[in-house]
Amino acid sequence: MYFAGIIVILLVLLVAFSLVLPGNTRPCDALVHPDKLNNFAVYADGVTLLGVVDATLPNITPLKETNKGAGIAGEYETSAVGQFSSMKLQMTWRMATMQAALLARPDGMMLELRAAAQGIDSSTFKFKQSPIKVTVRACASDLQLGKFDPAAAMGTTTEVECLYYKFTYDGVVIHEIDKLNFKAIIGGVDVLEEVNKILGR
After folding, report:
1. Domain boundaries, the chain
2. 59, 116, 140, 167: which could join 38 in a potential S-S bond, CB 3.0 to 4.6 Å?
3. What is the pLDDT of residues 41-69, one digit of tens each?
4. Using an 8 Å Cβ cutoff, are 34 and 123 in contact?
5. How many of the other CB atoms lie within 10 Å of CB of 174?
6. Angle (CA) 122 187 197, round 5°
7. Model pTM score
8. Taking a C-beta distance cutoff of 8 angstroms, is the pair 59, 87 a contact?
9. CA torsion 178→179→184→186, rounded to 10°?
10. DSSP state for residue 125 in the 8-state scheme
């Protein structure tokens, strides 16, 4: 019994020691702290767009209405679940190129933004790059050609109205809004699921 007890204690110590050895850290113990956007690229219908300086993603703003009436102490706003106001994607260009001009055509287009999100792994203290992908189906909304200024970029801006918007982070769908097909995923949750069931969709 004495020796059996010692063996059990040694086995417990061995297991505990193995858990703290380098390389044995469990995946759930490691956290990646967001750092910055390393870089990004833009594609229109599969073609790389050159000369894009930055891109401003659409705001996701629910349609709201102010409520007030008898028995209510004042007023308050509520949103219509799954219903969103106009969503616009804006890009700034160095020059008023033909590629920028193509985004002013009335035809529908598919734009894809691919980015590398840089983070720091808390278990290794090394940088980790995670993919971000934004897909939009849109139509032209606005084109501002910019200005002439010697030895400076023109600052051309294009703006498109997004009818479909999908934001994926590290392979996980965070947001997906398809206005014409009545679909809305916000924060990974299908907020229109119950409405679609009631409508028989």
Report:
1. 30-60+86-199
2. 116
3. 999 998 999 999 999 999 999 999 999 99
4. no
5. 14
6. 150
7. 0.81
8. yes
9. 90
10. -
CA distance 192 to 185: 8
In angstroms, the CA 45 to CA 114 distance is 13
pLDDT digits (tens, 9 = 90+) for 149-187: 999 999 999 999 999 999 999 999 999 999 999 999 999
Structure tokens at 90: 């804006």
> What is the CB neighbour count within 10 angstroms for residue 190?
14
- Residue 51: Cβ within 10 Å count: 17
- Fold observed for domain 30-60+86-199: Pnp Oxidase; Chain A (2.30.110)
The residue among 139, 137, 136 whose CA lies nearest residue 105 is: 139
Tokens, residue 47: 């073609």
Q: Which two tokens stand for residue 128?
A: 């980790």
